[in-house]
Structures are given as C-alpha cells and as structure tokens.
Amino acid sequence: MKSLFSREQVDRNGSFQEHNRLQKQHVEEFGFNRAPRSLTAQTDDGLNAFIASVGQERLQELATGETSGGMPPQVLPMAESQLEQNLDLAIDSLISYFKSGQFGEFACPFNDYQKQPIVCRYAAFLPPNPVPIKRVLHWCNGRAESLLKNLQTIYALREFRGAGLALVMMDHPGQGFSSRYLKDPFKGFTRDFNELINAQKIFEGIIRPQLIEHNQSLGYENGFTYRVGGHSMGSGIATRLLQKYPDLADDWLFTSPMHNIDTPFHFQFDRFGVIEQIGVIILKFINILDRDFDYIPGRKPGYHPNPLPTKENPVMNKLTTSRLQTTFINRMRERYPGITLGAPTIVWLKESITECKKMRKQAGILRQAIASGKHLTVLRPTGEQVLGKKGQDRLYELVGEGMNVIDVDGEPKPQHEMLMEGPQIQHQAFSWLAEFAWGDGSLVASGPRTLGWV
Questions:
Q1: 270-302 burial, b for 16+ CB within 10 Å, e for fewer?
Q2: Rounded CA gap, 406 and 445, in Å?
Q3: Most buried residue among 193, 211, 236, 305 by CB atoms closer than 10 A?
Q4: What is the DSSP string of 280-303?
Q5: Domain-located, residue 8
Q6: Residue 2: its pLDDT value, please?
Q7: Within a 13 Å sphere around the CA of 277, how many CA atoms are in the beta-carbon half?
Q8: Is the pTM of this model over 0.85?
C-alpha cells in the first residue's frame, strides 16, 4: 500500500532502472555529455552527412547567396514514398543528418528527487563554415517530446541552414534527453512551470554567445535575427517566456498552442471562470494529498504507443490523421526507449492551468510587444482535439488587434501535430515555419509565400 506521505515511487519490475540506463546510453550516443554549457565540435561524419543531404554544388550556391544567381533556399521534406518504402532506412538517414548538429548540456539551478541538479540537453544546427548566421530559430518542444521529434523538420529546412539559418532547441527539464524530476521516469511532471521557463532563458543565455562567436570567427559583423517558436506546451512556455523577457526575441510563433487547458470545469455559462477557479482549488487540494504525484484520472502508468488512425476514424489518436506519421512516432520511441514519457500528473495539470491564467492576466505584455513591432503569430489546426479553441480565443481577444491567428484547414481536418501530418499539411506547416524563420517574421492566412535571399 502506498503511503499518503512518502512520495515514493516503487520500481516493482525494474523498468525505472532500465529506462535510466537506456537514457544514459542515448545521451552518450549523441555526445550531449561531452560539452557542458558549450557545443561539441562538428564531426567529419556529421559534416559529410550534411553535404550529402544538400549536395556540394548546391551548398556552394547557398553559401554565396544572391550573387550565385541560383535559386533561394527551398523547403525539402523527406518524400512520403521514401518513408513508406523502408521506414527504418529512412529513420537511419534522418538520424545521420541529425548527427550533423552539435550538442551540449547544462545543469539547472533546481533539483530532482535525489537533490541533484536537473540536467538539460540541447542541440544546435549551424550553417557550415564559412557561412555566417543570419537567422536563428529557437524552437520549444511540446510535452512528452524530445529533440528527435524534430527529425523531419530539421531535415526539411536543411537548405536554409546552408544559407545561414541556425536551428537551436533543448529538451525541457524532466523529458526527452534531459534528466527526470522523479524516481518514476515515465510520469509527466513539473514542480513549477517557472522552472521550464527559466530553463529556456538559461539555454538562450548559453547558446546566443556561441552563435555570436561563430559569426565573429568569420569576420561577419551584421548580427542575426533571433526568433522563437514553439509547439503545444512549448508554445505555452514561449508565451510565458515572452511575458517575462519581452526583448529576448524579435518575433514569436505559436503552433497548436497551449494557451488554454480544457478541463471538466469549463461551462458555457461561466463567463468569468468562477467554476474553473474552484476546480483549480480542488486540484491543489488533491495535489497536497497526492504524495505519489499520481497521473491525472483515467491515464495508465508508463509509456503507451499511439493508436494508428484508420480510414473509418482518421482522428483516432487526436495527434495526426497520418497512419505513417503515427508509425514513425512509435518507431522512434521503440528505437530510443530511454526518452519516452507517459501521461501527465495531477500537479502538471494544475501548473498548466495556472500558467494559462497568467497568460491571460498578462495579455497586455503581448499587446505591448506587438506595438513595438514584433510579430506574434498563431498557427492552429481546424481539427484540434487536444486543446480548446474557446479558451485560446479568450487570450487573443484580450490581446486585441495585431495577434495574427491562422486556422490551418484540410481534409481530413488536420490534428494537433501539423508538422507530422499528411504530406500536404506537413509541407504547408514546414513552409510557414521556414517563412517565419527566414522571412520578416510575419505570416499570412492565404498560405506560405515565396522566399528570397537574405
């Protein structure tokens, strides 16, 4: 019988220890632990993988820019046929390209259950020498995701990297390659959302000087545009990051954003959210008694693969209508079981609801950011089932004019994971992301625009 006062998680079948062993193995594979608060040097194999993915002549064309007279960088996703033909071989190719990046880690100023600092791991995909960095995209993952979730995105934007785009990203405390808060590594937990926000700020403070140093080593003095984007919970973290540090980035993109958490306490007639406030108080009380940091009601312990969509029910898993992309997600977690995460805990739900309330309370900061010339854009799928649009709209109404909200439509209706949807929606999402990162930071509802040289 578990104690109401112990907060102990019992590893009855050795799965906790095995998860930790595998995660350590994955960390060593990519070399995160070889560069504390720095970046590993790019390996010859990594550079060769980058060159092979773009082509030597095309890389030269991208490096010389407009003077080459060639075509500006293009979005080039891995073909669906390549994924279908041999998924494992396609994943091998994507991981090979991923290893063309550089990696590192840093210790956070907050601790895990053993009173050891949480260690966050990060990756950077910089232009090859002698190409200077002209644009930076700082990407924030969603809940339960890892850096490897972005394999296809990073690959699709490889020509922009060749022309001067740096993509930088980290795994949030408690998930992915980063160390866990709890003894049970499967529980989706955060003690305080401020820790997730502060970790992103620490990462920015570590990575930005290294990007400046890259340009200085090339004698490039023009600087770069720094933009932040996020997905789902990552969008929520990015929003709170903006509210705490308005000058951190030039423009901001929120995809399938956690700007609201649907709960059983939402009622149409409760205009002022009184019932929701009572519900949060109930969750806080449960959290006090919940000494084992239990999963939210109805969720099973441990990690479970996503169910595959069918023709009869293409929105079965609420993440993507693509059977191939669902298989891809599941296969990646089979290959890297040490980065898997299970369902959220009650304390995570309570913290997330609280942060969404803070977003609305500080909507004026978003309004000021827009007035200062920053672009704030929302991309959300019309088929969204994970997050509630009515609650999102409450925030956007408070912000007022200038908050650019684009609803992405298709057939079947795109779901939460637009970057891992069917090829048409996925390509559109990649193109919008490229336009945000490479263009002037603004997007239009009519669709991605043709991009030129920077």
A1: eeebeebeebbeebeebbeebebbbbbeebeeb
A2: 5
A3: 236
A4: HHHHHHHHHH-TT-PBPTTPPSS-
A5: no
A6: 40
A7: 7
A8: yes
Measure CA of the first residue to CA of the last residue in the chain; give whole Å.
63
CA distances to 91, 216, 328, 402 from 63, rounded to whole Å, are: 27, 17, 32, 35
49-103 pLDDT per residue, tens? 999 999 999 999 999 999 998 999 999 999 999 999 999 999 999 999 999 999 9
Q: Give the start-end residues of each E strand in 171-264.
A: 225-231, 251-255
CATH classification at residue 148: 3.40.50.1820
Q: Kindly state the tokens that stand for 85.
A: 């033909």
What string of DSSP letters covers 416-441?
A: S-GGGS-HHHHHHHHHHHHHHHHSSS
The 8-class DSSP code of residue 126 comes to: P
Q: Considering the domain boundaries, does residue 9 fall inside one? A: no
Domain tally, the chain: 1
Residue 310: domain span: 15-438
Q: Does residue 1 register a pLDDT over 50?
A: no
Q: Per the domain annotation, does 10 fall within a domain?
A: no
Does pLDDT of 406 surpass 80?
yes
Across 269-355, where does the E strand assignment appear?
Answer: none
Classify burial at 327, counting beta carbons within 10 Å of its beta carbon; exposed 0-12, middle 13-18, buried 19 or more.
middle
Residue 5 lies in a domain: no
Residue found by looking up tokens 């854009």 in the block? 377
Q: Tell me 402's DSSP state.
A: T
Residue type, 126: L
Using DSSP bridges, classify how beta strands 376-381 and 117-125 pair: parallel, antiparallel or unpaired.
Answer: unpaired
- Do the beta carbons of residue 64 and residue 83 sit within 8 Å? no
**Per-residue pLDDT tens over the stretch 115-163:** 999 999 999 999 998 999 999 999 999 999 999 999 999 999 999 999 9
- What is the length of the chain? 454
Which one, of 195, 200, 180, 154, lies nearest residue 22 by Cα? 180
